Prior knowledge:
Elements: H1 2-14, E1 24-27, E2 30-33, E3 36-37, E4 51-53, E5 69-71, H2 75-87, E6 92-94, E7 114-115, E8 125-126, H3 128-144, E9 147-154, H4 162-167, H5 182-195, E10 212-219, H6 226-239, E11 244-247, H7 255-258, E12 265-266, H8 279-286
Parallel strand pairs: 6-9, 9-10, 10-11, 11-12
Antiparallel strand pairs: 1-2, 2-3, 4-5, 7-8
Helix pairs in contact: 2-3, 5-6
Amino acid sequence: MKWLSSTIVFCLFSSQIMAFEHFISRKDHQLFDGEEVFRFAGLHAPELHRIENDAKGVCPADPRGWGQYFQWPTADEQESWIKALVKSGHKAMRVYVLSVEQESDQACGRETHILAPLTKGAMPRLNETAMVVYDRMITLAHQHGLRLILPFIDHWQWWGGREQLAAFYDEPQEAFYDVNSQTYQAYQSIIKQVISRKNTLTGRYYYAEKAIMAWETGNELKDTNQAFLESTVALIDRLAPHQLVVEGNYLQLNEYAITNPHVDIISNHFYTTNGNNKPETIKQNLA
């Protein structure tokens, strides 16, 4: 049975079906797949690379009071979801952020994508177990024809975000947006490590994966400032010149983002609780 399972996995990932001929590109306000205009719409599938196990309840060791349990999806789960998305007409899909280690993870039996530095003041590390799952998501997306939008770090703490990253350096969470802080240097290091990673299943560097449509600065980075944006998107564009860059701010559209040559896509999130979940807001944003 062990030999059979290994054979199935090998066959799945060695076929290398070339689903994509081009990277998605931008000309002015439109996206293109080669010479064809690329448009997409659909559901948000945040857990293609990490599952919130709500059925297990709340971890009492988590001081945040909500602490979920997590697990990595299996290859079968990832392939089933991606095939279902493609069959239902999805061309592109945004997943959720990379998770960041925090102090109660061990007590709650949780693994994360980003691990604390080995020594004080050093840079964070990628969890190889988690990143192989990420490799597989990208590989399956390529094989079945799904483009991916991949955000880096969260403004919020749900999967571990800026607050947890800043805690590695005894800095406040606001330091994430300060380009002179250790936290921001760690954020840049994460971007570099991820984009330059070689996929263990395809043998391609992430910056060469056509399934990766775009990199997003993060999730709902609502305290984005001009210096933060300019430094971050210039770095992403330099490391991944053939992939698009999404500005991950929300609640407002900043003129310096709209005019920045390294920003390809402006995003916003609409919530009733914020009073912006209405057609008028979308029309204003588009204008």
